[in-house]
Amino acid sequence: QVQLAESGGGLVQAGGSLGLSCAASGRTSSSIAMGWFRRAPGKEREFVASIRRNGGTTYGTDSMKGRFTISFDNAKNTVYLQMNSLKPEDTAVYYCAASENNTWRYWGQGTQVTVSS
Predict the structure, then answer these.
(1) Distances in whole angstroms, Cα of residue 43 to Cα of each of 17, 48, 62, 88, 94
(2) 106 near 2, Cβ under 8 Å?
(3) How far is it, in rounded angstroms, from Cα 92 to Cα 45?
(4) How far apart are CA 71 and CA 57, in angstroms?
(5) Region at 110 (left for phi over 0; alpha for psi -120 to 50; beta for the rest)
(6) 10 backbone φψ class: left, alpha, beta (φ>0; ψ -120 to 50)
């Protein structure tokens, strides 16, 4: 089992920045990747970014790739998502996830990000 604890959400004005953190504990060696997803009101869950243990990263859209940065601190078993130039459409609940056997098996409780216009 892997437990994930997110932090760092909040309210920010459009154009501002926000950083999210997700600390992993438990059997973290079974996870080869960690990622971030989001769900906006009335919309489907959306992939934001992921990072593999070898450091490889993937972003959901070109817009995310240009404004968001995912990183991982091995010593702290913590994944970060730095979000810059935030837009109102980035408003969502952001979820941290950890993979196991090529599926996103473990999920955090979610943290709200609200971007005001």
Answers:
(1) 23, 14, 19, 14, 13
(2) yes
(3) 10
(4) 8
(5) left
(6) left
**Which pair of structure tokens corresponds to residue 90?**
């980035």
**CA-CA distances (angstroms) from residue 40 to 83, 111, 112, 113?**
16, 12, 10, 10
Contact 77, 2 (CB under 8 A): no
> Following CA atoms 35, 1, 6, 55 in sequence, which dihedral angle do they give, to the nearest 10 degrees?
-30
Q: Are 11 and 116 in contact (CB under 8 A)?
A: yes
Please report which confidence band the pLDDT of residue 89 belongs to, taking 50, 70 and 90 as the band edges. Answer: very high
Q: pLDDT digits over 95-106, tens only? A: 999 998 889 999
CA–CA separation, 53 and 109 (whole Å): 23
Name the β-bridge partners of 58: 50
pLDDT at 113: 98
